[in-house]
Amino acid sequence: MAEKEELAKIVGAKNVLDDPKILEEYSKDQSFARPIKPRYVVKPKNAEEVKRIVQWANETLTPLIPVSSGPPHFRGDTIPSTGGAVIVDLSRMKKIIRIDRRNKVALVEPGVTFSELQPELAKEGLRLPMPLCPRGSKSVVGSVLEREPHIMPKYHWDISDPLRCTEVVWGNGERLMTGESGGLGPLEDQWKAGVYQTNPMGPANIDFYKIIQGAQGTMGIVTWASVSCELVPKLHKLLFIPSERLENLFDFAHRLLKFRIGDEFFFLNSSNLACLLEGRPDEIAALRETLPPWILILAIAGYEILPELRMESQEKDITDIAQQFALTPVSSIPGVSASKMLETLRSPSKEPYWKLRLKGTCYDILFLTTLKRTPEFIKAMYHLAGTSGYPTTQMGIYLQPVIQGVSCHCEFNLFFDPTDSREVARVKKLSTEANQSLINMGAFFSRPYGACVDMVYRRDAESTAALRKVKGVFDPNDIMNPGKLCF
Amino acid sequence: MALEDYKADMERCSRCSYCKWVPLAQVKSLRFAQVCPSIWENNFHSYSAGGRLTAALSLLEGRVDYSDKLLEIIYKCQMGGACDVSCKVARHLEPYQSMLELRAKAVEDGQLLPQHIPVIDGLRKEDNMLQKLKADRGKWAEGLDVKNITKEKAEVYYHAGCRYSFDEDLWPISRGAVNLLKRAGVDVGIAGKDEVCCGGRAYEMGYQSELTKYAESTADMLKIAGAKILVTSCADCYSAFKVLYPKVGINLGVKVMHITEYLNELIKDGRIRFSKSLPMTITYHDPCHLGRLADPWIAWEGVEKKVLNQLIVHEPKKVWRRGANGVYEPPREILNSIPGLKLVEMQRIKEYAWCCGAGGGVKEAYPDFAIRTALERIEEAKSTGAEAMVTACPWCERNFKDAIKPSGDGLKIYDILELVQQAI
Amino acid sequence: MALDKKAYEALEEIVGPENISEEPVILDGYAFQQHHGTEQAYGGLFCPRPEAVILPETTDEIQTIVRVCNRYKLKVKPHSTGWGFWAAPSSEGIIQLDLRRMNRILEIDEENMYAVVEPYVISSQLQAEAMKRGLNCHIIGAGGSCSILASTTSMVGYGLSGISTGFGGRNLLGAEWVSPLGEALKLGSLGSGAGWFCGDGPGPSLRGILRGFIGAAGGFGIFTKVAVKLYPWPGPPEMPIQGVTPNYYSPLPENIRDYTVTFSGSWDSFADAWYKISEAEIGYVMGKQISAFGSKTAVAQFLTLSNPDLDNDDIPELLESPDVRELTEELTGPTFQLTIAAHSSSDLEYQTKALEKILEETGGKIHPLFADPGMEELMHVMMIKVDRNNLIFDAAGRFGTSFGIFSIPDTLVGVAKAGEEVKRRHIEKGGLMDDGGESTWGGPYERGRIGGHLEELFQYDPHDPKSWQAAWNYLMDAALTVATKGWPPGLSLLPALALSEEKRAPFFAVAGEVIDLLRWQGRIKRAFDPNIVSDPGHYITVKEAEGK
To answer: How many other C-beta atoms are found inside a 10 Å radius of the C-beta of residue A118?
Structure first.
């Protein structure tokens, strides 16, 4: 009881929640993580409150689980792994602090979702490179901290993009601005001095942003982040390059990626494309039947300067290169128009979230590799899925070139009915087997969740030991989301 | 100038490491990017030109004293001058001249490299660098029906040099040169056993006074002979006559030419004609002393001044020697004019060519290092697909042949004259 | 202070006697480094002499060396090509590791665009090999003779091709790193046995502790192999170099254009153009290159490059010429160089027309002199191969840098102006070369998406102690200016690394809270380097490392 009062002193009584129904909601998600109830959910309003919460947690050795996005959650990273935890729900921190058209940067608090940010950016002629149709409740900060790949590889210079600066309350309770803001005064003073949170590096000899990213809340809590934005195109056109065989698209893709041709740029199989475009399971199934097995989705854009010429130039390049590889870009494929696709990609997913439409929920297997290796992983996955009885035609596949084409995010989406215990058991088993097989084949699970976590860290003992040392520095009392990753 | 006069250069060294590499614009691959055999072999920074400037600075400031290691740093270097070329792409410093003075100072201070002592003793006694008898110097020309300029006047004096005089394997080349000149109607004479060393190598080894001695002697001889032109097949001698003699203030009173320059003129004038085809792919090795070290000497005496607070200028204006004006084209023109011959270039050529490994007293003091340096060049030659490497200096030829012998390599080594002879 | 005999023998056992030395003359070779204006801090031209110098060849050897150092309580400072006082030991009693023998390119993955290199592959070498495959690497301003590994992992990473080839520190993918305890850590995908393509994860990225903005300069472990990101090169597989030394030039192919753009003295227009160029996504190399050599002297100096009859000694006379004065006026201040390299004819059309439009909108002009073919072909080599930036040492003997703020164009204009003002004050005192005041060098990175940088260069004479004193005074003033303006420190605190712990404090005091952040570095250092084996001095002080 005293705890509740202590927390209430920090965030206000009505922002400390312990209603069993609410605790139940926060105890589980769409993953296979064992449900564990938190003791409280607290909802701070600002960084100072977050800091005091963290300080309190250090004094009381209470595990904290930060959450930014609204439900449904899929990864298990926002579920306590241990009893007695307090969820720090950042959804009240909803300020879009600043949008800067000239420097193409936006500063947002963690509770800001893509649905909230994109329209505000659009007013300034900006857009944030976004993952593939994230759910409406997805936090922008949450997404960039997870290193979710966005769909415009040309703008993905480093795996950390589009993240720039942050303000973090580290696990030891110290508050720090990362990147060029580190060590400088309050934001308002920085803006007066001409510092707009565009350089993510440092301060000094630590790239703090790389430590907080991918940490799944185990190092600290971010109270704002700046993200690098792009211009809203004056002209925008989407092309499909369909293929019976995925491999046929690779050389073409490499050429385009090399010369940074195209904005939106990714591969989908027919199942995923159908899920993105249709709302109901029968519609999805019907569309899926008519779609080619593989589609490279490629959009080109013109901006402020000579938009038409820019479009023409890219289109000519695409045509020339496609010809060299006997491919034909088209602006529609049976059942889908390019404009509909583009419309879909411009915003977060409409409800229901596209991954839920086919069966109710989805388990994602996601890892990094290189583009030309993806067929071997796909083959393995089909084999494992087939063996497990999973209906392989339903499996979604999404390939996203990242780091401007150096690497490729490979994602298998296992749609299943969460109310059907057999399907649940099947996908759970399949996911475990698949994770292990893929890891053994050399898939790099850079963002490990759930069952694959132990497998991933067992494979890299040195990094595990090093990360534990880092954890010891930033969260010496091990209060930040204990039990996640290798901690 | 003495070593102390280069102190400012030592302090102004950029520590950029340009001296270790070909001029960066000329880097064409990972494999053949280095240009300094000394640091390539020895790795510690001191073995680069920049490192040697620092060693000199340390010595002058009393931070270090003479030691075996310092002598090794000084002398395990062929004095090929590539470092100087690379440095001067962006700097106005004199690393090569500084290194010459460092050697001179060591000698002056009595710090003699033991391996060099018998060589210099031999020079002083017998006027040659190969520790052979002076009396045998003329043997290379036995049976050659050619004037002796100590007895008869001749328009062109052919200087064989120590290597060509005493290295029997190479006699066909010096003999061939004389015969070719005669055949072309040139009024040529030699000095035979009265020829003396040019003194160039000894100068490079730090024994500067030896050069002056021989320069005076040869100048006298040429005056008496009434020669107008001095031609030599030896690149080292060429560089000594062309660059070092004017440097020490000695005017030979003749036009100095390398055999490749002379032959090229003869070919252009039609006095040498080719009648045979040599269907062969070859590559050409620029000898250091024919190339960058043969950039003619420019005498300059003046002072350094500062303007704009710290901008360094000279009064009078100093014209810089950067290795650009060596003899690069004549050998190539000759090779390109031989029917059937295909010339492919190595990656490191002209002013940034890799050294054969023999110079600076290294062949004498560190023969294994000389051979390894040669083998590196041989690798580079082979990488072009050439069947043979052609050069124009007996020291290069000797060192390449010595290196190839044990390795039993397929690559042939020719002097340019040999190909000319074969094609006539 | 000689190395303990047992320790020396243990080290000698690892690399062999020919690869280790404690001869004073060899050691001095490593104590001589570029000071960038910090001679005053060192009391002369030499940095501390290392205890010994070792030349390892493999990661195994390095690990063993590091373990021996842990055992015998020794410190190591590694360098690759080693250029700058931070490459030398920061104090007495430190062993220098010269990584010269680790010089292989292990792999160039053409399709996925990265190369795996050891420490002593210089940028020119990697570039030559990459160009054969239609690729290029990011070469820093210090040029092609620098280790590409070093600038990617350990020391800044500024280069004028940054608009298209990014920033050194952000180009790191998988890597092999030997910790100060001698463990070999493989970053990212490499650690998971998946290859070199990603340096981050699993989970948080260890790249984060290994370098920040500046890099640890060898003060925190040793990188032994790294994968560096490569970028497209639409030019020929080998640039045809013509001319005789020093005037190496290369004719521009059809698809590459070089420009010098001027803005009639308007910094606002300069900034506008920078923004628009970034947004239009044109440009291969961009930045202030010519002006870096001095707003008064650069043009004259550049004229001597392309004309074999002219040399530095002609500069005073050239400066008197009205033509040169006019050119100087036009070509310094708000101007920049821009290279366009197009991958197709339609791309060329777009890029050139976009540039025209941008110039129209901002009042920019293409300057005719530097569109003179001779100069253009020379600049082409300089801008792509970065083969000759060493020229910055040439006028006075040495150069230093200051400010070096990483920010957005509008703010960088402020940096240029501040740099000019502060520098002019010090030029008037006589010790620094009078280069006119504004000599900034820098440009955008990642098409301006993370900003860009400008650093104020200055030139001084190491042969003249009064000149170093002047350099040091200027650096202090520059650091103070940066701090009072509320800018992030950029390169302004770099000179402080030359100072001993006691002397460092007042210098750092001006930087206030930024320096408090060193406590984080200290914590990381203590976690990974409990015996303080990696020479901390250019990364953090021993006291800070010990948590005192």
So the answer is: 19
Mean pLDDT of the B128-145 span: 96
Confidence of residue C1 (pLDDT cuts 50, 70, 90): low
Are C194 and C75 within one domain?
Answer: no
Placement of tokens 């590196």 in the chain: B376
Closest CA to B229 of B154, B132, B279: B154
Categorize the per-residue pLDDT at C79 as very low, low, confident or very high, splitting at 50, 70 and 90: very high
C520 chain-A contacts, CB cut-off 8 A: 176, 204, 206, 208, 473
| Domain(s) of CATH 3.40.50.11810: residues in chain B | 274-291+326-424
How much is the mean pLDDT over chain A? 97
Fold type of domain B274-291+326-424: Rossmann fold (3.40.50)
How far does C21 lie from chain A, in Å, by closest CA? 31
Q: Determine, yes or no, domain membership for C166.
A: yes
Nearest-Cα distance to chain B for C303, in Å, is 14
C/B touch flag: 3 or more CB pairs below 8 Å: yes
Q: What is the CATH number of the domain that holds C63?
A: 3.30.43.10
CATH of the domain at C477: 3.30.70
| pLDDT band per the 50, 70, 90 thresholds, residue C371 | low
Residue C372 has pLDDT above 80, yes or no: no
Thinking of the domain B116-268, which architecture would CATH place it in? 3-Layer(aba) Sandwich (3.40)
Inter-chain residue contact B69 with C315, CB threshold 8 Å:
no
What's the rounded mean pLDDT across residues C35-55? Answer: 95
Cut 0.90: pTM above it: yes
Q: Are residues C207 and C278 in the same domain?
A: no
Q: How far is C232 from chain B (nearest CA, A)?
A: 18
**Residue B416 confidence (pLDDT):** 98
Is there a domain that residue C141 lies in? Answer: yes
- pLDDT computed for residue A356 by the predictor: 97
Indicate whether C368 and C437 sit together in one domain: no
What residues of A are in contact with residue C191 (Cβ under 8 Å)? 459-460, 462-463
Tokens matching residue A73? 């959650």
Q: How many CB pairs under 8 A join B and C?
A: 212
φ/ψ of residue A93, rounded to 5: -85, 85
Of C98, C124, C154, which one is at a domain's C-terminal end? C98
Cα–Cα distances in Å, from C79 out to A83, C101, C118, C225, C343? 49, 11, 12, 13, 37
Query: Does B8 touch chain C if contact means CB atoms closer than 8 Å?
Result: yes
Q: How many Å lie between the alpha carbon of C233 and the closest alpha carbon of chain B?
A: 15
* Containing structural domain, residue C537: 511-546
State whether C383 and C251 are in the same domain. yes
Q: How many CB atoms lie within 10 A of CB B406?
A: 9
Q: Is B199 on the interface with C (CB under 8 A)?
A: no
Q: Which two tokens stand for residue B408?
A: 């039993």
Is C405 a domain residue? yes
Does the beta carbon of C35 lie under 8 angstroms from any beta carbon of chain B? no
Query: Could you give the strand order of the β-sheet that contains A220-228, starting from the edge strand earlier in sequence?
Result: A96-100, A105-108, A220-228, A163-170, A175-178
Indicate if the pLDDT at residue A165 is higher than 60: yes
Q: Scanning every residue of chain B, which has its alpha carbon at the shortest distance from the alpha carbon of C81?
A: B17
Instruction: Identify the domain boundary among C64, C98, C132.
Output: C98
Alpha-carbon distance A234 to A304, whole Å?
7
Q: Are C381 and C269 in the same domain? A: yes
**Chain C residue with minimal CA distance to A307?**
C280
Distance from CA of C462 to the nearest CA of B (A): 6
Does residue C86 lie within any of the structural domains? yes
Q: In Å, what is the CA distance from B224 to each residue of B147, B154, B237?
A: 14, 10, 20
Cα–chain-centroid distance for residue C242?
A: 27
By the CB < 8 Å criterion, does C434 face chain B?
Answer: yes
Of A103, A147, A206, the CB nearest to C524: A206
Q: What ipTM does the predicted assembly reach?
A: 0.97
